[in-house]
Amino acid sequence: MGFEEKAIKLQVKEENACETKTICLHAFTDLTYVPPVVFIYLLKECYVHGNLKATKKFRALQQEVCQLLSNSPQPGPAAFVAHCLYILPIFGSYCEGFSHLIISSFHRFLKTKATTRDFSEAKCIAVQLFLDIVEGSIDHDERIAVKILEVFDVRLTDIEKVVSQLKAKNDHRFDSVKTFVEQYIFALIESQSYMTAVNMLEHFSIRQPGQSFLLKMIEKKQFEAAEKWATFMGKPMLSILVQEYVERNKLKFAYLIVKKNDLQQEFPDVHYKYKKSTLKQLSEKGCWDVAEAKTNGDRQLIEYLAYLAMEAGYLEKVDELCNHYSLEGLPKVQELEASFLRPRFLNLNELVVDGIIWVDELNGLGEATCHIEGSKVVGLDCEWKPNYVKGSKPNKVSIMQIASDKKVFIFDLIKLYEDVPDVLDNCLTRILQSPVILKLGYSFQCDIKQLAQSYGDLKCFKSYYMLLDIQKLFKDCRGGLSGLAEKILGAGLNKTRRNSNWEQRPLTQNQLEYAALDAAVLIELFYRVRDHSHTADSLDRSEKIEWKSHIVSHMDNPKNSRKESRLRKEPEIEDES
Fold it and tell me: What is the pairing mode between strands 397-403 and 355-359?
């Protein structure tokens, strides 16, 4: 931004001519004769005309102001800051941001200088400023008022001292300082500024509000403020907070407070309840492997996970858990299949698919390509191992499924890319860029971008010909591809394996069938639309749909932006340990 330089150049248009003017910053080297208003004005000009983004400009200014406070500001650094805060409201929209800037800079400065000779004077100015803010004669945000109290360490005794001086001058606006402060805090509570109120209660060690205040913050979802105030009040109020969270099924909040404040003895079952809640959430997202890892071998939790798998109809997971952990008393898969009531899911055999062909070597790649090139319509889908680390990039696409009328080919992209990348590129280019093969997908834009991100050097994933996104033919269909299949074909798709480990080799038979079905069902849905010539929302009516108008004849894969780094929404698993 130019603080290391001595000048900032500004471009000013005057009478259609561009004149370069300079703001001289030599005043910053010595603040002895620089009044606060000039100092702030120069800072504002630096901010306005700086060429960095707002956050970086703020941090650069923050560091610079911290250093400048050592350059002899008068009557001293603390009082200088207090005076700056007094006049900042005249800078309008810059007031709040620059108040945070100057206070945070002064806070940093105090870490290097334990105290300043003018701190006592500055504290008196800060008290007067606080009183003026509360009375409304100075227009500062209430959060700034709290920060002023904190950075200048203003206590009730300091306010009483200033008020007594005012009374000596026949200013009797403040009868009781504590009452005056409490009234202001209660006004903050009424206006639902809960965190600001809590900060002031804690700062002045006021313990007056009761349990109703805590409940009000919870009801308004001010959980951070509720925990801060309960922590300030002590274990009895923390216990009330935990109990409220348990009753409201906010088990994560309850668990974290119990753990942080050593309340395990008072709430021995909260940890187990929270773990069960976590397992249930993970199972609902299809993250069975992660859920199993979260049990840490606890037998009760493993049994609970097995029952969740039963409810989801994930019977092979039940069998896996029973065998791996020697669970007794749970029915075997054969018994469950005969007795367990579960929703009906679409079966691969119902789509007249002859077989699933795994492609992971050169000869198989060539045969698959020749077969697919003889098809007029194919269904496409991809799978990759979910990444549960919050904020991280998705894993590389593991497999690509291409379904014809009779067969589904599952390409092991990871192995083929390692062994025969050039042949893989050539074969998939012949398929994906063929102008005579109609490629069907469901919300395939995400897969297209992920393929390019995973294998960016392959030309086959840079452009596509003859694409038809089945999703665009159906309006307001809930439940994704599974919901669409249920609506049109009478049975949905079992999505319990969606978030399984697609990088393990070999894939299980259930994984293969799941992957194949996602591609094969697209062809069946397309034929239903084509043969009826209707929209999916009106298959029982006579409204026609021009499905051909939705075909994209050619599309280049756009470069990924930062916002597109998480292409398909994956479940994010937070670490609670």
Answer: unpaired
Determine the Cα–Cα distance for residues 325 and 153; give it in Å rounded to an integer.
59
The continuous run of DSSP H or E covering 164 comes out as: helix 156-168
Residue 18: predicted pLDDT: 42
In the structure encoding, which two tokens stand for residue 92, read together? 């309008």
> CB under 8 Å, gap of 24 or more: what pairs does 542-546 form?
545/473
Which residues lie below 8 Å from residue 339, measured CB to CB, with a gap of 6+?
A: 331
Contact 380, 469 (CB under 8 A): no
pLDDT for 489: 85
Q: Which pLDDT score is estimated for 372? A: 97
Token digits of residue 541: 């009516």
Please identify which residue in the block is written with the tokens 């709040």.
96
In 3D, which of 25, 27, 112, 97 has the Cα closest to residue 62? 97
Q: With contact defined as beta carbons under 8 Å apart, do 432 and 402 qualify? A: no
Longest Cα–Cα distance in the chain: 100
Secondary structure of residue 206 in the 3-state scheme:
coil
Q: Would you say domain 348-532+548-555 falls under CATH 3.30.420.10?
A: yes
In our burial notation (b when 16+ CB lie closer than 10 A, e otherwise), range 94-116 reads bbbbbbbbbbbbbeebbeeeeeb
Instruction: Give me the pLDDT at residue 547, please.
Output: 79
Instruction: Give residue 560's identity as a one-letter amino acid code.
Output: N
User: What pLDDT, on the 0 to 100 scale, is given for residue 157?
Assistant: 94
Where along the chain do its domains lie?
20-230, 269-325, 348-532+548-555
Tell me the sheet residues that pair with 24: 7
Other beta carbons within 10 angstroms of residue 144's beta carbon come to: 22
Cα(339)–Cα(334) distance, integer angstroms: 9
**In 3-state terms, what secondary structure has residue 113?**
coil
As a whole number of angstroms, the distance between CA 529 and CA 60 comes to: 60
Residue 226 is predicted with a pLDDT of 96
| Mean pLDDT of successive 10-residue stretches along the chain, which has 577 residues | 41 40 54 91 88 88 90 92 95 94 94 81 95 92 95 94 85 79 93 96 88 94 96 95 95 96 95 94 85 91 91 81 83 50 72 87 97 96 85 89 95 97 97 97 90 95 94 77 83 79 91 93 90 52 67 78 44 52
23 and 7 in contact (C-beta within 8 Å)?
yes
Sign of CA dihedral 77, 80, 81, 82: positive
Task: Give CA–CA dist 300/441, Å, rounded.
Answer: 42
pTM given for the model:
0.66
Distances (CA, A) of 452 to 280, 359, 464: 34, 20, 12
Which two structure tokens, joined as six digits, stand for 362? 């050169």
